[in-house]
Amino acid sequence: MLKLSWDLFVIVIFAVIIAYSFIIGKTNTIKVIIGTYIAILTADGLGNLFKQYMLSSKEIVMFLKFFGLGNEDKTMILVKVMIFILAIIIIAMKGSFEVREDIGKTGVIGLILNTIFGFLSAGLVISTLLIYVSGASFVGGNVSILNNTLAAAYAESEMVKLMIDNYNFWFAVPAVAFLFMSLFNKKEIA
Predict the structure, then answer these.
(1) Half-sphere exposure of 33 (CA within 13 A, CB side)
(2) How far apart are CA 39 and CA 131, in angstroms?
(3) pTM for the model
(4) CA pair distance 91, 103, nearest whole angstrom
């Protein structure tokens, strides 16, 4: 019998994102990674503005309490996660930039690179969502798991703990991989 757990949840999301990267291809996976970085900054910035201006208004707080969102921490989690997901979707679908590369377009190298970038994309997205659900700011660098929404999952799941404890790794490595791949790109922009 399969036991549902946070570890299983993280593994399934990893698998779904990696499978999706094969569907859209390496170039679009890189575009999603770049879009994820933009979405992280957008969610943090707009989330902080929301907190500063909207949650200081008594009328807005009363409105949120009417919908069961009176808790400031839970409201901020919801706002940042929604902005993050919406920004990734918009950038992936309508982003007005393109990625040009000529390494591993086909064959075994293309398959390996697509797998690597799919894995890195999954790690970046999942770690970001876990950081936001913990109530922290991804770019702020201050993650405290004690007494927050994710404390139970953090305590019982090695995968959640791995993703949160190493979020700087998940944040940096996709960009480093993209930069490394760019060193070997033969195309020059005129």
Answers:
(1) 29
(2) 14
(3) 0.82
(4) 23
- As a whole number of Å, the CA-based R_g of the chain is 18
Among the listed residues 7, 13, 31, the one whose alpha carbon sits nearest the alpha carbon of residue 117: 31
| Residue 45 near residue 133, CB atoms below 8 Å | no
8 A C-beta contact, residue 33 and residue 182 = no
Residue pair 126/163 in contact (Cβ under 8 Å)? The answer is yes
- Angle, vertex CA 10, rays to CA 167 and CA 133, nearest 5: 55
Distance between CA atoms of residues 104 and 107, nearest Å:
7
Q: Per-residue pLDDT for the chain (190 aa), expressed as one digit of tens each? A: 556 788 888 999 999 999 999 998 888 888 889 999 999 999 988 888 887 777 667 666 666 666 666 666 777 788 888 999 999 888 878 877 777 666 656 678 888 889 999 999 999 999 988 888 887 776 655 666 655 667 888 888 889 889 988 888 999 999 999 888 888 776 555 4
* Among the listed residues 15, 26, 8, the one whose alpha carbon sits nearest the alpha carbon of residue 110: 26
d(C-alpha 95, C-alpha 52), whole Å? 28
Whose tokens are 């993050």? That residue is 84
